[in-house]
C-alpha cells in the first residue's frame, strides 16, 4: 500500500498548520522580473534563437560604426606634420559625421532567413576636442624630426537621440558624456618641396551605450562599450596658405556587449554578455587653410568593409560594404 501524506497521519491540526505555512511562504516570495541569465543564443531553428542572434549581430555590426565616429581619420586635423618644439600646441574643435542605420528592435524571428528591417537611417555627428603638444624636435640632414603628445576628448550629448541611451554612470560634464583618447605622433619634415611623413598611434574609449529596451516592448536590446586603437600613416605638403595630407591605417576595436532578448513562446527575457572584437582599414584625405593663428580643415575618408560572418541579414546595413565619413575642424595654434 502507498504511504499516507505526513499531514494526514499527524492529525488535522498539524495538516492545517503546514498548509498555512506554505501559503504564507508563497505569498512572501516575490516573483522575479530580472532577465534570466543565459550563456549563448538558443538554436536558430526557434524564433527566440533568431531574435537573440539578431541582437548579437546588430551589436557586432554597430561596433565599427561607433569606432569610426570616435576615431575619424587624421588625429591632427589638416596636417601630416607635428609641432615638435616643446610646449608648442594645437587645440582643435572638430566634428565627425557618418551615416548610421539602426536595426528594427521589434524583429520577431518568425521565419528563418527573414531580413531585419531598418528602423531609421541618420547622419550622426561626433563632436571632439583634440590636442597636440610638442615634446621633442631635432634637426637632421634629411629634415626635422618631431614628436607630439596627442590627447582627445569625445563630447557625447546624452540626449542626442532617443534610440541610443548613454550609461547614466558614464563620465559626464554639463550633460555631455565623455570619451578619452591619448597617444603620440612622430613626424619627419624635410625641406620643401619634399613631402612630410608622420606615423601616429592612439588609444580611445567610448562609454557604454544602450540600444533598444526590452522592458519597454522591444524584442531585443544591447548595451556596448568600446575601446579603439588607431594607427595612422599620413603624407602631406604645404604651401603658404594651403596644406594637403592623405594616408590611412588600421583600427582595432574591442568591447563587451550585454545582449537581452525576449522569448515570446516562453514569455521570458534572457540576457548574456559577449566580448566583441573587430578591425577596419581606414583612409583619409585632409585639406586645410592656414591663417596666422587659426587653421580651418576638412576631412573626407573611407572605412573599408569586412565580412563579420553574421548569421542575420540587416536591411541597408552590410558589414562587407565600406562606409564614407567626413568632418570639419577649427584649430588654434599656440
Structure commentary:
This protein has 334 residues and is mainly beta. It is built from three helices and 15 strands. It has a ten-stranded antiparallel beta barrel. It has a two-stranded parallel ribbon with strand order 3-14. It starts with 5 loop residues before the first helix and ends with a strand. The model is unreliable at 1-33 (pLDDT under 50).
Key features of this structure:
mainly beta; 334 residues
What string gives the helices and strands in order?
Answer: HHEHEEEEEEEEEEEEEE
State the low-pLDDT regions, or none.
Answer: 1-33
Residues in helix, %: 10-25%
- Dominant shape: elongated
**Strands, total number:** 15
What composes the largest sheet? 10 strands, antiparallel, barrel
Mean pLDDT score: 89
Largest sheet, spatial ordering of strands:
2-4-5-8-9-10-11-12-13-15
Number of helical regions: 3
Secondary structure category: mainly beta
* Beta-strand content: over 45%
Through-space gap between termini: 97 Å
Write down the Rg. Answer: 27 Å
What would a concise description of this structure say?
The protein is mainly beta. The protein has helices at 6-9, 12-28, 47-71, and strands at residues 36-37, 89-103, 115-116, 118-140, 143-157, 164-166, 172-173, 176-189, 196-211, 220-238, 242-263, 268-290, 294-303, 313-314, 323-333.
